[in-house]
Amino acid sequence: MLVSALPIPRISKVQKAAEKRDVIPSNDALWGMTYSPYKPDGTCPDNTGMLKDLLSTTLLTNNIRLYSTDCNQLQAAVDLISSNKLNIGVYAGIWVSNGDARTDSEIAEFVRVANQYKGQGIIKGVSIGNEELFQNSMTEDQLIQNINKARAAITAAGINDIPIYTTDTDAFFSKNLADACDLVQINVYSIFDSVYTSIADSVTSVFTRINTVQQKVGSNKLVRIGETGYPSAGNYNTQQGSIANQLEYVNRFVCNAKKQNLEYFVFEAKDALWKTGASLLEKSFGVFKYDSSIKLPITSIGQCVGY
């Protein structure tokens, strides 16, 4: 069922579920989180389910990053945020990995929703693709062509206040690609490092990589982290996913990011059981469980004592 197929629920419809959480919403423990709305079976959520997800994110952040307009998720997210007066900014995504037809459709959908909510400040940015160079889905020249195509359509629609960029891993983000973007958004992980000593050392290495990208693209470009995180289960070589390791990674990263005034999205809002065929590790990066119930001790997130 498409999320836009049902009436937009008001917050009272799910308030009882939210009130059961033994936490005090803070909205500022994390700068942002990535959010994929899919249900565990891969189908689209209804609006009540999506509102429940959004209310969970407001316990920790006021920024979410989407990857696509699939399932009408951009329309639904902005509708729900606007109608319920939620303090959430949306960083949209346009999926470009599956050919021109889908790319063009997603660009048109983004333009439509952005025009509908023009001037309201809910949509804060849009990423044209995610890890296209890392996945080898296209060349750098082709990716830049897609960025320019999206920019032309967005500008032609009179939308001039939304930054346009792409997102890729730090190793693949060149100066040439940065020049085509309004900002540089990179995905940086340590869980896949071949050498591991400690979570503290891993976080230090992540910031070293971030600084390397900043030097490469120039100080005039904002560098934002599009994804970083640690799993609560599964393993990679000697690294073991666990609640304790996930919490330590998130806190060490967040506290260092605050010192550097760095914008970032923690990957990800909820566990991704919908990723058919993926490893347990890849399904377990959620700050919340698959149903948006509490997994990490969230009152401990963003508390920088000792970090």
TrEMBL record:
One of its GO terms (biological process) is polysaccharide catabolic process. Its EC number is 3.2.1.39. One of its GO terms (molecular function) is glucan endo-1,3-beta-D-glucosidase activity. Keywords: Carbohydrate metabolism, Cell membrane, Cell wall, Cell wall biogenesis/degradation, Glycoprotein, Hydrolase, Membrane, Polysaccharide degradation, Secreted, Signal. It catalyses: Hydrolysis of (1->3)-beta-D-glucosidic linkages in (1->3)-beta-D-glucans. One of its GO terms (cellular component) is fungal-type cell wall. It comes from the Eukaryota. The keyword Iron does not apply. Glucanases play a role in cell expansion during growth, in cell-cell fusion during mating, and in spore release during sporulation. This enzyme may be involved in beta-glucan degradation. Active on laminarin and lichenan. This is glucan endo-1,3-beta-D-glucosidase. It comes from Furculomyces boomerangus.
